From TrEMBL:
Residues 22-128 form the Alkyl hydroperoxide reductase subunit C/ Thiol specific antioxidant domain. InterPro entries: AhpC/TSA, Thioredoxin-like_sf, Thioredoxin_ResA/DsbE_sf. It comes from the Bacteria. This is TlpA family protein disulfide reductase. GO terms for molecular function: antioxidant activity; oxidoreductase activity. Pfam families: AhpC-TSA (PF00578). SUPFAM superfamilies: Thioredoxin-like (SSF52833).
Amino acid sequence: MPTPTHDIPLTLLDPDGGWINAPVHVSELDELPVLLHFFSMASDAHANDFAALKRFLAEFGPRGLKVIGVDVTHSARELRDTNAVEAFAREHGLVYPIAVDDGSMAQAYGVKQTPAWLVFDADRRLRHHFAGKDAVRQVRPVLDRFTQYDTSAGAPAP
């Protein structure tokens, strides 16, 4: 399903609900492909495809992929106290940055169901938006196209 492209808005990097694990700054995204994974704490880990996400991190992280989770299930209480989101992240082994969305990020990106996978190229342009329980199967080939091997790490010394 083709998706129109647009710049990642800077508001992405300053969610009203705060961050879990570590904040993300604009400079960290320069020239890197980005995967935004919108998920719901109300769904189980299998429905959110966290296992697939961990495989993507292992395979594409060394190739430059930046993964940012976006929690879209929360109450006003969770926006004031992110302990529930932190506990959820620990329980599921989610070690990448997670934005606690007040609803504005999901609305800005047109995310109407979770999980949703948004793939941005190195120029911070949205290239693909996949959503629903079977969407994860479409994500891997796209990540393969938008990441490159880091040849400097394995290059022999002159």
